[in-house]
């Protein structure tokens, strides 16, 4: 497990007062807003606010006061310490913990490794890199791909 978890990336400046637009990797803007101190690239910044902004939430940091400073953050990852995250309930997981998990069939045959998790609105999709280097996307759904004791058990029929 990594010491930090990426919640978002800065995708650009918003306005002239130092606000930035975020691409979320967290569940919601509230997942970012609950933190007061956030790492943005190699800087520790104080989060003043996060608000809805059409397709991308808009964040304001105490230390960023103009558009030039906001533009300098473009492309930087927004991370927090793993210790700052809320505890998980039964059946919940952090995407960061899934990346790198081995994938196996029900009979234990190696099928690959989780390299990414996407969500296009209908649920999580696991991107699995097979031993031959090719990648497949599999719905993270019960009976198709199940999290079980530090590995993903995948129905091989769903691997293209």
Notable characteristics:
single chain; 160 residues; mainly beta; six-stranded antiparallel beta barrel; six-stranded mixed beta sheet; elongated
Give a written overview of the molecule:
Helices cover 9% and strands 43% of the residues. A hairpin with a 2-residue loop joins β3 and β4. It has a six-stranded antiparallel β-barrel. It has 160 residues and is mostly beta strands. The protein starts with a strand and ends in a 6-residue tail after the last strand. The mean pLDDT is 90. It is built from three helices and twelve strands.
What is the topological layout?
Layout: E1 4-14, E2 19-24, H1 29-33, E3 37-40, E4 43-51, E5 58-61, H2 67-71, E6 77-81, H3 95-98, E7 102-104, E8 110-119, E9 124-129, E10 135-139, E11 145-147, E12 152-154
Parallel strand pairs: 7-12
Antiparallel strand pairs: 1-2, 1-6, 2-5, 3-4, 3-6, 4-5, 7-8, 8-9, 9-10, 11-12
Strand order of the largest sheet: 1-2-5-4-3-6
Along the chain, the helix and strand elements come as EEHEEEHEHEEEEEE
Strand fraction: 35-45%
Query: Based on helices, strands and strand pairing, what is the structural class?
Result: mainly beta
Work out the helix count: 3
- Overall pLDDT score: 90
| Secondary structure: helix percent | under 10%
The stretches of 5 or more residues where confidence is low (pLDDT under 50) are: none
Main sheet attributes: strand count, strand direction, barrel closure:
6 strands, antiparallel, barrel
Using only C-alpha atoms, the radius of gyration works out to 18 Å
Q: State the end-to-end CA separation.
A: 29 Å
DSSP, total strands: 12
Shape: elongated
């Amino acid at each position: 497990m990594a010491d930090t978890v990426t919640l978002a990336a800065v995708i650009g400046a918003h306005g002239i007062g130092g606000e930035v637009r975020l691409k979320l990797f967290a569940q919601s803007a509230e997942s970012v807003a609950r933190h007061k101190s956030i790492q943005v690239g190699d800087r520790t910044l104080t989060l003043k606010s996060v608000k809805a902004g059409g397709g991308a939430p808009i964040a304001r940091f105490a230390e960023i006061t103009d558009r030039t400073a906001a533009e300098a953050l473009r492309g930087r990852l927004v991370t927090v310490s793993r210790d700052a995250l809320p505890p998980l309930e039964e059946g919940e997981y952090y995407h960061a913990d899934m990346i790198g998990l081995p994938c196996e069939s029900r009979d234990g045959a190696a099928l690959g490794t989780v390299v990414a998790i996407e969500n296009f609105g209908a649920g999580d999709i696991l991107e699995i890199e097979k031993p031959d280097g090719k990648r497949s996307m599999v719905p993270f759904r019960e009976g198709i791909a199940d999290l079980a004791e530090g590995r993903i058990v995948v129905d091989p029929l769903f691997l293209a």
